[in-house]
């Protein structure tokens, strides 16, 4: 059970009683609690990435924010960016070389990272592989910061779209053998996000590094971009479920600072709570439930092994 169950029981659309990211910070008593710590947030050029940064900045931590377009990010971050506590790092998720450069730029300035938040994109390569490589490059610093008193955390944004499809076979992640279908590709990338978080927890949880994945909710830009035509035709029915951008960042911040996740992970979250299995009659793109394949340990292990190969890193036990 979550303290926010009642607020989510009868949604009325953006700006209703559901919590915002800043409310989570206040409710968790997180203001000023991470002074001297380092937080890295990817994809901070618009939307919930900015709101996540705005909220987590109140913890007192130093923030490294990865962005694709410097000018766009500076305009979007007006009123949020504070050069004394935040630093922008250019990173293009479509290029693994750019991911390496961004990681190296951060590693040149810090040897410890308390929290990594990876905002997701849409395709397997730009979404999963870039995030996987970025985590692996920052992994030593996340472990270096991790203690029993203050474990490190990784928060990976997934989506309800993971319900649509699991993983392709190992030699067809990018549909090299054909059969490309947008919803399947999108669903696969979101399943990969969940598997990455689950496998981080399995591998590093005993070392005080924990990871969770989450569905931020249906937010205007996400809805328009990714929901299928038939879902858009039912827009009036979907509208009450939609969240404002400030509300859309709430579950991310809950996973990042919530006391409930201090010593555990490997769970899929939505609406500031741990979520149960999707019901058979629910629409997959708007359900908060998780798919039956979401906690498939062997599939998560396979993805980890394959991802190491695809980004050019050595095999692991």
Automatic annotation (TrEMBL):
GO molecular function, one term: oxidoreductase activity
Keyword Signal among record annotations: no
Pfam families: adh_short
Alphabetized InterPro entries for the sequence: NAD(P)-bd_dom_sf, SDR_fam
Domain of life: Eukaryota
Family annotation (Gene3D superfamilies): NAD(P)-binding Rossmann-like Domain
Keywords recorded for this protein, A-Z: Oxidoreductase
The keyword Oxidoreductase appears for this protein: yes
Organism: Bimuria novae-zelandiae CBS 107.79
UniProt name for this protein: Retinol dehydrogenase
Family affiliation: Belongs to the short-chain dehydrogenases/reductases (SDR) family.
